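S.,

Sequence below, as promised.
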Amino acid sequence: MEAYCFAFVASPFILLVVSLAGKRMKRVSTRIQNSMGDVTQVSSESINANKEVKIFGQQGNEINKFDAVNYDNRNQNLKLELTNSLQSPIIQMFLALALAVITWVALDASFFERMSPGTFIAFLVLQQCFQDL
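The prediction came back faster than expected:
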């Protein structure tokens, strides 16, 4: 029974990581969409007002505006990738810690004295479920 308790101790931490990562990904995805809109707007303005840009010598200004919106777009995409790349290792760390605690408890001699054969099989199945994650 103790093995099951330790298995469910890791669940809130995993849910917290998934929840926080999901909220951050949603926020960053919205920013990426806005940033892509800015890139499209600046590009469209430069293309549609090509003659005016050339007449008034604003090529440098348009290039700077385009670079700025692309820089922001790149930063938002990097934030999204950072969130994606950190989420999985953190969840795996919590699962590994839970598995280590379960194994440590299971190796205790007094634990086996109280464990029935059915409980032992359930423990092994639970451990296999964690390894599949």
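The mean pLDDT is 83.

Coffee later?
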